[in-house]
Write a structure and sequence with these properties.
The protein is 68% helix and 4% strand. With 210 residues, the protein is mainly alpha-helical. InterPro entries: Znf_CCHC. Keywords: Coiled coil, Metal-binding, Zinc, Zinc-finger.
Length: 210
């Protein structure tokens, strides 16, 4: 944005009619047409020493200070010029009616901003409704999760009972197999004793015949 070299404010369409430095006298150079804050000439002061007029000039440090302040002022004005509605200054707003003198692009921008606000409000309401649906769904899932947890506990208890029954059955089978082995051993011993008795009787019979 362009700044006015007379007063330092933003130069707009109606700025010349309300410019503060148009007919003002500068305190630095004593010229008419700009203010002292926008003056780029060295400050002059009338001092009479021995009836001789001496022009006081600024030192280099003061010039650097003034230059730095001027750069900060212009940069701040340029930053403010990038903001919305910076084309129109406050006195211009006061001097004209909004409906008749505001530029068309300002009205269009105002309408676009209002539309964006409405769209954002609708999105916010949509997000609120979706959030409520998600909360209800989470509550339902929590209830289902609780029932599933109970079911898993029942299944785990059943599995533990089945494991216990399997161990009991395996122990009974081991006991039964041990008993069967003992029975088989006893029967084998009895059979061997019977065979020995028969063999002994045969020997006795053969000896008696001789």
């Amino acid at each position: 944005m362009e700044l006015c070299y007379r007063c330092g404010e933003i130069f707009g369409r109606l700025h010349l009619a309300i410019c503060k430095g148009f007919n003002r006298c500068c305190f630095n150079c004593k010229r008419i047409g700009h203010l002292a804050k926008t003056c780029r000439n060295a400050k002059q002061c009338s001092v009479y020493v021995n009836s001789i007029r001496v022009i006081q000039r600024k030192s280099e440090k003061k010039k650097e200070r003034d230059q730095r302040r001027w750069m900060e002022f212009t940069s701040r004005k340029a930053t403010l010029a990038e903001l919305p509605f910076s084309v129109i200054s406050e006195p211009e707003f006061r001097a004209m009616e909004f409906d008749s003198a505001v530029p068309t692009h300002v009205k269009t921008r105002h309408i676009l901003v209002a539309d964006k606000v409405n769209i954002l409000n609708e999105k916010i309401q949509d997000l609120i409704s979706k959030n409520e649906d998600l909360v209800n769904e989470i509550k339902t899932l929590n209830g289902k999760n609780f029932s599933l947890t109970e079911r898993l506990r029942d299944i785990e208890s059943q599995q533990n009972e089945e494991e216990t029954l399997r161990k009991t059955i395996s122990d009974l089978r081991n006991v039964q197999s041990c008993q069967q082995k003992q029975t088989n051993r006893k029967s084998a011993v009895v059979k061997s004793e019977k065979r020995r008795e028969k063999f002994r009787r045969k020997i006795i019979r053969s000896v008696s015949r001789v």
